[in-house]
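Work Package 3 (structural annotation) set out to generate three-dimensional models for the target panel prioritized at the project kickoff. During this period the team completed the workflow that converts sequence records into discrete structure tokens, so that structures can be stored uniformly alongside our sequence database. As a representative example, we reproduce one entry of 450 residues exactly as it appears in the project archive.
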Amino acid sequence: MPHPYLPATDADRERMLRAIGVSSVEELFADIPAEHRRPRLDLPPPLSEPELARELAALAAKNRTAGELACFRGGGAYRHFVPAAVSAIVSRGEFATSYTPYQPEVSQGTLQGIFEFQSIVCELTGMDVANAGMYDGASALAEACLMACAVTGRRRVAVSRWVNPRAIETLRTYASGRGYAIDLVDDDGLESGAVTQEHACLAVQQPDYFGRLSPATDAWGRAAHAVRALYVVSASPVSLGLVRPPGAYGADIVVGEGQALGAPLSFGGPYVGLFACRQELLRHMPGRIVGRTRDLEGRTGYVLTLQTREQHIRRERATSNICTSQQLIALAFAVTVCLLGKQGLRRMAELCYHKAHYTAERIAELPGFRMVFDGPFFNEFAVACPRPVREINGRLLERGILGGLDVSPTVDGSPLASVEGAPEHAMLLAVTELNTRDEIDALVEALREI
């Protein structure tokens, strides 16, 4: 009787074995010691569906989500308001089950959704063109730097050391496969030749990993363009409701993490990376691009443009390794921005800004706590702590508060490791529009008692 899922018959298998010169399937695995071929699995007895559902529910109940706690955790993923209509729209079958719009005649809704997403990204960033999205913000930054290397023919990338360390780690992984070198540079060294003619680009983050809003955005662009390198900016989309877009200060490529608008924390994903650039760089841009056109009868239509597929048969000619669209999260991003509108997005950004500053001022008044950096910041800031952050966060969790990230110099990848005079213990706190004044005051009082 043929196997229900494997179409090869016994006769088919015998012909394949003869073709490769072995007499049996067992002979194929002769190099594996017999005791390791079919190890005994110590599995519990099977469960019925209701029993399994109860067990999984009990395991899930051990998690405590950000929605159950007063959340002050950030560092690249944030808890923001997501309108109820977003879930209702992205859960529709034509969006939730669609894979890829290679056939435009049956994919007009999906293609229009992508086109609107691209248009919104261009408006937010101040850039000319955007693609259909990347895996996440970290992969978008890595792809931007690889794109800069392809455009310039150079093999070194300069990155501000204040970029999110997880994104830098991702960039190193991408670059290692191509043999590109990554150089970390300090902001104060940009004008003194830290970026050279060997560098394909200068990549920075605004606001940076510690939430700081740098006044040197124009200077960064001048430093890159002085040596004919590209200027890559990783931007927070929420902050763009309040601050100047990167296109206004000379960015060539703008990337970002789109999770903050439309996607819950979701235990780490899926998210969507934003990617936009200047018009003249369009043909080097990775991923899908949707265009709008008219058919023979004058009706508006949407199609994948420049290339109909994003996978490349010839690896050396590929612009990217992106081969799966994050369109569902991109759609959630677009719906969220449309529902908020221009004034709603600005109001969200203002609340993040003012609530974060109120929180920082209250904490800075506590004995043993102080701000690590001076100057303007958006919705995130680092504070020096009198005790280990792990210990403080454990005590906060007992009170229903999810504390900040441990960014102490001893933590692997912390940018503070290179800062002279950095505090022994430091915490990165994030405040969004969802944090109430009562939550903020409770955090301050808990830190005071701890």
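The chain is about 35% helix and 15% strand.
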